[in-house]
Amino acid sequence: MMVEIIPESNPDIDKNLFLKELSKVADGINLKIIKISDAMQSNRNKKDDFIYINFLITDEFKGKFFLNNDGTVKDELTDICDDIIAIPFTLNELDETRNYTIGRNSNLFQILNYGMKKQKIIPINNNSSIRCNYDEIKSALMDLTFVGTANLVNSKDFNDYYRLEVKR
Question: 47 near 26, Cβ under 8 Å?
Fold first, then answer.
């Protein structure tokens, strides 16, 4: 038997810092989806489910990704190539047919739309919301590789935030 290293996300990489630094990379960076969690109930809105998606960073990517114990940003550049970051995505609520509606404005839409097009599950020109089940989401996203970027979303309900998106 050989010892196996289990690829796990690095809990020390701050998701917000990661996305902010990514937004500064003009050409984006290569990412690969290597794990999708089971759907879990959201604490914020009990009707909604969410998933964690683990992204393997397959490019050199230097930035400030870590926080000090007091919440300030560690002032050192780190290359997180071959590291893994877990990012949560809301799926909304299950309907009576056990499907989720992933709206065009949801954080997952752009990545899921891209993945489903690549898997030929939906037409290549789709830009409309998607109704699908967990297994369809998982099969569209698992092992998906893409060039990722982050864009600032101006939110009416929350603070503005950066969203992971597909550059190409």
Answer: no
Q: How far is Cα 151 from Cα 110, in angstroms, rounded to an integer? A: 12
Q: What is the pTM of this model?
A: 0.93
pLDDT at 1: 75
Tokens standing for residue 73: 């940003």
Q: Which residues, listed in sequence order, are joined to residue 36 by a DSSP beta bridge?
A: 53
Kindly report the CA angle at 62 between 155 and 164, in degrees rounded to 5?
A: 30
Q: Cα–Cα distance between 136 and 79 in angstroms, integer?
A: 34
Name residues whose C-beta falls within 8 Å of residue 19's C-beta, 6 or more positions apart in sequence: 150, 161, 162, 163, 164
Q: With a cut of 70, list the residues of the chain below it in pLDDT.
A: none
**So what's the pLDDT on residue 150?**
97
Task: Please state, in angstroms and rounded to a whole number, the distance separating the CA atoms of residues 33 and 54.
Answer: 6
